[in-house]
Amino acid sequence: MTGTPMTYPPREQAWWMVAVFCFAGFISYTHRLILSVLVDPLQIDLGIGDASISLLQGAAFAIIYVLAGLPLGRLADRGRRRRILIGGALIWCTGSILCGLAPGFWTLFAARAVVGIGEAALAPAAASMIGDAFPPHQRGTAIGVFFMGMVVGGPAAVGIGGVLLGAAQDGAFLAVPLLGTLAPWRIVLILIGVSGLLVPILLLTVREPQRLEAIEQAPLSHVIARLASDRLVLGTLLIAIALLSVGDYGLLSWVPSVLSRLFLWKPEQIGSIFGLVTAIAGIFGALLGGVLSDLFARRGGVRGRLGFSMAAASLAGVGALLVAAPHPALVLLGLGLWTLCSAIAATAGVAALQDVIPGDLRGIGMSLVAFCNTLLGLGMGPTAVALVTERGFGNPLAVGYSVACIVVPAAMLSIGLFHMSRSALLHKRGGRDG
Predict the structure, then answer these.
(1) CATH architecture of 219-434
(2) What are the Cα distances from residue 187, in Å, to 93, 176, 256, 284, 286?
(3) Mean of pLDDT values over 122-134
(4) What is the pLDDT of residues 290-336, one digit of tens each?
């Protein structure tokens, strides 16, 4: 402790900060996933296949994101966090604009990496500031509101992107200087990047709260040793959550292409309906996952939470199977069911992680969740689906089957790992519940 009294900023100031962070999370996920609705025109313009698109959606962003996350997290513990947030927002918006101007695949790949660097600054700095702005009994609610922006941001990328792409294809921006000469998908990326500059402007209105505790940097070997002692519980739990993320990113990236290629839906139709289904399902999933997992925890401890995650992941797998159905209504039903149940299972899993990890390592625990979700989910989910479509089925119209081939096994493996973590926890505690 610093030795000074624990004082928190005024309530309205703290909640304004959270509202700005929620908006920042919304914009960041919109930038992260905007390519999913631009797949077909981008491929035609640049002459690239599904595998190359998947690298732009996943690896180009994910690799630099996970590499930058840890040093930016340590910087957030030591430096001026608001400056880090403003700098990160400026970088990711610039990256999105550069994506719209990129002349070819590799320059677009590099621009996506710039987006990843900027977005890696958001979560650690925002979570640190929220921790200093709210007393312990309110931090969960504040963090939940912050995460809500991210939950809505992914579907919004498809919704907003679809509307903008449709307008650009209809010539709505022909009279705009410079923009009017560009391909429609480039116009969308530039508009998204420019509009995102509202985030650093809003961050200027946020006051950085006083740090309540001095951060003690434990040696890395000490941290690794403590985590390794619980590797059967923690490792299986982290991978179980990450496997759900494989499905999340796989569906967000390729279900729009299912609706476009198989059912000839227009971009604006995909954007509005896809965005509505996933946004509603994601919001309810996040809320229900927290509330119901707390209920199961009161009855069965940590193992109750993990059992609840297993049940939700089972239903999510059914949703992934429906994505391969031959009717758009069933595809949307599967998308909604996966989004709802995956959010429930992941939220309950993260709550269980917070229960079992040592109190002074919870921040590291959340960093590991983000690391695994990004590396496995965003890094592998879109690419695996594309590879099955191109090299397995050899038919772009089989993309729905490819989604099911990747995501259903991911859900089954997730269930098994939740069960292993649950069993390891019981063994560790000698048959006593957590």
Answers:
(1) Up-down Bundle (1.20)
(2) 14, 10, 19, 33, 33
(3) 79
(4) 778 778 877 888 888 899 999 999 999 999 999 999 999 999 999 99
Q: Is 204 exposed, middle or buried, given 0-12, 13-18 or 19+ CB atoms closer than 10 A?
A: exposed
pLDDT tens column, 237-280: 999 999 999 999 899 888 988 999 999 988 778 877 887 898 88
Is the pTM for the entire model greater than 0.70?
yes
Dihedral angle sign, alpha carbons of residues 294, 299, 305, 309 = negative
Q: Would you state the structure tokens that stand for residue 347, as one six-digit string?
A: 């939220």
Which residue do the tokens 């961050």 mark?
203
**DSSP state letter for 182:** S
What is the C-alpha separation between 205 and 244, in angstroms, rounded?
36
Per residue in 379-433, pLDDT tens? 788 889 989 998 999 898 999 999 999 999 999 999 999 999 998 887 765 544 4
Tokens of 378: 């965003």
Nearest in space to 147 (alpha carbons), one of 230, 63, 28: 28
Q: What region does 4 belong to: left with phi over 0, alpha with psi -120 to 50, or beta? A: beta
Give the Cα separation of 74 and 69 in Å (integer).
9
User: Which amino acid belongs to residue 5?
Assistant: P
Look-up of token digits 């200087």:
177
Pairwise CA distance, residues 180 & 183, whole Å: 8
The residue type at 368: L
Q: What distance lies between CA 90 and its chain's CA centroid? A: 20
Residues 147, 95 contacting (CB under 8 angstroms): no
| Residue keyed to tokens 């999340």 | 248
For the chain, give every domain's residue range: 1-207, 219-434
Helix (H, G, I), strand (E, B) or coil at 38: coil
For 288, the token pair is: 């229900």
32 alpha-carbon distance from chain centroid: 8
Maximum separation of any 2 CA atoms in the chain, in Å? 72
Cα–Cα distance for residue pair 152/140, rounded to 1 Å: 18
Q: Any idea which fold 1-207 has? A: Growth Hormone; Chain: A; (1.20.1250)
User: Which pLDDT band holds residue 144 (cuts at 50, 70, 90)?
Assistant: low
Asked whether the domain spanning 219-434 has the same topology as the one spanning 1-207, the reply is yes
How many Å apart are CA 391 and CA 40, to the nearest integer?
18
Per-residue pLDDT band for 191 (boundaries 50, 70, 90) equals very high
